[in-house]
Amino acid sequence: xxxxxxxxxxxxxxxxxxxxxxxxxxxxxxxxxxxxxxxxxxxxxxxxxxxxxxxxxxxxxxxxxxxxxxxxxxxxxxxxxxxxxxxxxxxxxxxxxxxxxxxxxxxxxxxxxxxxxxxxxxxxx
Length: 125
Description:
There is one protein chain. The chain is mainly alpha-helical. It has 2 domains: 7-66, Winged helix-like DNA-binding domain superfamily/Winged helix DNA-binding domain (Arc Repressor Mutant, subunit A); 89-125. It contains 6 helices and 3 strands, in the order αβααββααα. It has helices at 7-19, 24-30, 37-50, 70-85, 90-100, 105-123, and strands at 22-23, 53-58, 61-66. The longest helix has 19 residues, at 105-123. The radius of gyration is 19 Å and the shape is elongated. It starts with 6 loop residues before the first helix and ends with a helix.
């Protein structure tokens, strides 16, 4: 499943991933932007139409929940970014991240560890 989120949709999904099933008012309250109730409801309905969100009736309202995993959305977004801006090359993306970011020694250590673990997995195949 190809997952495509606008910035606003991603913000709403983040609320659902962080806080679990939520009423529209709860989602609205947890967003950093002040949006009208109807705007949040429209975003949730759009996400539901895409199959990313579901809902259960609760009293007179609906409790919305994420139907897709955050990890799947991240993977999809990263692949899209890699394809569009880095000619499909994960190496170019990684090179950009390492050379253009101010990484702490701890971040560099963790990256090296991840690369070593990946290398060990590949060599054991």
